[in-house]
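One record is given unchanged without comment:
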Amino acid sequence: MPLPRLAITAGEPAGIGPELLIQLAATPLAASLVAITDRGLLERAAARCGLDIELVDDDGSMQTARRPGTLRLRHTPLAVEEVPGQPDPRNARHVLDTLIAAADGCIAGRYDAVVTAPLQKSSINDAGIRFSGHTEFFAERAHAEVVMMLASPDLRVALATTHMPLAAVPAAITPTLLTRVLRIVHAELQRKFGIAEPRIAVLGINPHAGEGGHLGCEEIDTVIPTLEALRGEGMHLLGPLPADTAFVPAQRQRYDAVLAMYHDQALPVLKSEAFDRTVNLTLGLPFVRTSVDHGTALDLAGTGTADPASLIAAANLAMRLVHRSNEGRGTGQ
């Protein structure tokens, strides 16, 4: 049986991504791993990690087995050689080219999924290219409406808003936004995770979910009416719940996923308990995309000591989602 073909992007050349990719290739992961990056970058990363990796130009053929330590490559050249720990805006175009190749390859069916190592958003913006993150980039490339989710073995958290200032969040939380996001999360929990009747906990925007309007009226004016309307469509929605108690064990038994209203509302909980096992997942794309849940760790770049656990978890989740998708097509779902 052919192995799933995972396109792996190395992210920021001066960060830990290339070294994580090399360490991933050294594992016995049962997937055809196709690195989309610069050959020399990977060779130097392998030397820093003290690992022997066999790089083979990707010819697009299917594999039925892969030896640990082998890695297929779609060579995408750097503009300048990397200096670990020092991002160079001249390599911004290289980073974007790797994302384009991965996304377009998935859309064309050449890859089954894309797994991304961390990049440095500031370096891309310093090159004069507006860039807010992987999630937004892939959404635009695929012409899709998407939702960011982070998933650990024990908890799934989706975000109503992602990379925006906290002061802009209340105005961004509209009935239209919440309806779109919750419909995507509901559908993807069914499609990607096989949950027939998903239970979604929705957090309030304000402390204590507004406390009846005494700590803010967004829940009364926007969140509650939207949830009532979606319950009328058959969705099982809890809330709005106060964020400070939504993650206690007794509450977790009641839901399959949480919708947080902004980036830092729920992610500290997730990362504090499962940082090395958490995966960033983009819902709503026409292909599977997973990623690490951390940044470029410039202080560790070049040392060969960065922990690859999150990238390995991302690759494993991508494989599971690809297999589930294939099984769904096989049964006519």
